[in-house]
Amino acid sequence: MTAPSDPPADRDADRDAAEAPPLGATAEAALAALFDAGPEAADHLLKAAQELLLAAKAVVDAGERAVEAHRSAADAAEETPGEDARPGRGRVRRIDLA
Fold first, then answer.
1. Could you tell me which of 16, 19, 35 has the C-alpha nearest to residue 27?
2. How far is CA 18 from the centre of its chain?
3. What is the pLDDT of residue 64?
4. For 19-48, what is the HEC assignment?
5. pTM strictly above 0.70
6. Are 42 and 34 contacting, i.e. CB atoms less than 8 angstroms apart?
7. Using an 8 Å Cβ cutoff, are 60 and 52 in contact?
8. What pLDDT digit, counting tens, does each position of 19-63 carry?
9. Which of 8, 16, 31, 35 is paired with 24 by a 20 to 30 Å CA distance?
10. What is the Cα–Cα distance from 13 to 11, expressed in whole angstroms?
11. Would the pLDDT of 92 be above 80?
12. CA-CA distance, 14 to 22, in Å (whole number)?
């Protein structure tokens, strides 16, 4: 906490330090370079990040479709059980190794 005798600039610096977490030297250098590059660079980075997130979403969606197709195929196979499958017992089948 600041004392009443502290100059106003010190109080502002203390308040700013309390509001923002401390950054490492690398993060500070990256932010300084981004500010020096201007708004075009920041806009480009934001668009690139959006593209990355959209690509990741496409991968996750494709994975979900593949899992759902596998589940549908497994459920269809369970409807016509074979000799070694017991109805209502799930997808795991007992294997006789003896």
1. 35
2. 28
3. 94
4. HCCCCCHHHHHHHHHHHHHCHHHHHHHHHH
5. no
6. yes
7. no
8. 666 778 888 888 888 888 888 988 999 999 999 999 999 999 999
9. 8
10. 5
11. no
12. 12
